[in-house]
Amino acid sequence: MHELENHSQKEQAVMNNGMNIIDNQQFLERLARKGTEASPETSVVTSPGARTAAWAIKVKSLSSYNIYNVRAVEIGSPGSLPVEIGGQMQAVNLAESFTETGQLPAGTFAVMSRVGSKNVFYAKP
């Protein structure tokens, strides 16, 4: 009986993986047909107990090329300034060239995400 349950769980995992692949393929096909203009919004979804997927940040200084030193900020009530929290970290600005010196001024606010092993954000200078 235990063997049957394990087999059933493995089949379910394979089916779920197959459905995820199909969903991803359909999404990529839609994106290829319509381009990114068809989905101008960015959304962040979290669930109870999950880690935060995105943070508000403040640019502190340029490190090199399009890599900046940033700090997370906590957004307070309307009319109050964001409060810097945590330590300084580095993040890549995807809005700037990877081969030229970045032009983003210190004090710029953005939303940062973790992609693989890199912190990334998008802010035009």
What does this 3D model show about the protein?
By secondary structure, this protein is an alpha+beta fold. The chain has one helix at 2-34, and strands spanning 54-64, 67-74, 83-93, 109-115, 118-121. It folds into 2 domains: 2-38; 54-121. Helix content is 26%, strand content 33%. The chain has a 5-stranded mixed barrel with strand order 1-2-3-5-4. Strand 2 (67-74) and strand 3 (83-93) form a beta hairpin. The longest helix is centred in the N-terminal third of the chain and has 33 residues, at 2-34. It starts with a helix and ends with a strand. The relative contact order is 0.15. The model has no long low-confidence stretch (mean pLDDT 79).
Describe how the helices and strands are arranged.
Elements: H1 2-34, E1 54-64, E2 67-74, E3 83-93, E4 109-115, E5 118-121
Parallel strand pairs: 3-5
Antiparallel strand pairs: 1-2, 1-4, 2-3, 4-5
Q: What would you say about this model in short?
A:
With 125 residues, the protein is an alpha+beta fold. It has one helix and five strands. The chain has one helix spanning 2-34, and strands at residues 54-64, 67-74, 83-93, 109-115, 118-121.
